[in-house]
Write a structure and sequence with these properties.
alpha+beta, nine-stranded mixed sheet, 20% helix
Amino acid sequence: MTEATVETRIWRAQRKHLEAFAGLPFVIYPGAAVGTPTARHLRVTTIVAPPDRKYVANGMPHERRGTLQLMDCYPAADFDANVARQLAGELAAHFKDGTHMADGAVCLTVAAYPEVADPYQEDGWWKTPIRVRWETEA
């Protein structure tokens, strides 16, 4: 098997840190084949910005930035706004600014305290978005 790419290491570092969170609900990762959930769950997506070249020489590390997006989802019948905000805040605190997430030689740093948006209702679910901005040089 070939050595893991920077992109793979970035994803594995994020996932490893997320899975270290105590009380993590069922998680739906990108590309996962799952049926329709019926209970609270967390949907995970990522947005990656284009790498920025820092050095003139070819093959040198680039500045990389992105956002790990967590969507805490509750069935409408089970939703309590205060509980949802508390749990979203606990997830955000797990990724507080300055948090390091590593896989091999790649180390990400959380760039700023995560953003917790207001819950909104969609398709019978209450959803609370949590956005974690990260950066690395790799």
